[in-house]
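[Meeting: bench + compute handoff]

Bench side (C.D.) handed over the final construct sequence. Compute side (W.E.) agreed to return the predicted structure before the next meeting so the bench team could plan truncations. Sequence as handed over:
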Amino acid sequence: MPTTADASSRPATPRTDRTTVRAYAAVRVERGPHGAPRLAELRSDVPVVLRLTGVTPGRTGASTDTNSLPTVTVHLVNGAAGPLAGDDLRLDVSVGGGVRLVLRSVAATVALPGHGPGPSRLVVDAEVADGGELDFGPEPTVVADGADHRMMTEVRLAATARLRLREEILLGRFGEPPGSILSTLRVDVARADDPGVVGAARTDGAPSGWTPLLRQELLLGPSVPGLQGPAQLGGARAVGSLLVAGPEWAGPGPEPTVAAGVSRLPLTGPGYLVSALADDAVTLRRRLTAALVPPAEDP
């Protein structure tokens, strides 16, 4: 049976200001003894509220087919408005071998200004074991006027793990100027000759046994020089990326492509990166998913 916990069952975290929120949530899935997917942990802390929304058993004899893996689907339900300035939110994700986790959200996240100290912050830390897959595609993050938000995502993949990671950002709500956002993405892949490295201690440099797959940092906001110029967003208010990684891309990846508002770049490693710009969230999503190999609609 899965274990579920809330704020009352975890160590208390000091709150430095009554107007700020500190929240920690976690989801851990693994393959059970008879091959069925197992939700080993589901921990929520308002406003980061997780809900189990589906379990699909895999097909016998097809465990190497990503579409046949036993699958657990979890949705993120925003339990409060925000994040606001000073809020510090964290989500830990762990996917075991031979199982797939589909992680979605039910609505966009709206980063808002507030009276707390410093920017709002969301940290996502994920690891995927050999033969496992993480499909993480939350709804867009909307950066409201006056907001200052930080998003940090770190993913560690075992040598035969798979990843599909989508990030979408909307600059401002309808008819308002944008706030500021700094998005940082780090993805590392374990060396095939160093088994069991998933879960090892990390350092800021090049951790032993790991190969960097992607380092990406995106700074957007009204103070960024030339943000709406042709060298950056060109007037677009929606920007996003879609990272696909897995053993099938360990050799030569798909051909690089550039089209109106979208590009696909093979990475030096098992994957490729799709980047897109658009005037709205719907067009952005279509451009990202159309560049997948093969093209697909978001589930």
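W.E. noted at the follow-up: The first helix runs from residue 281 to 290. C.D. will use this when planning the next construct.
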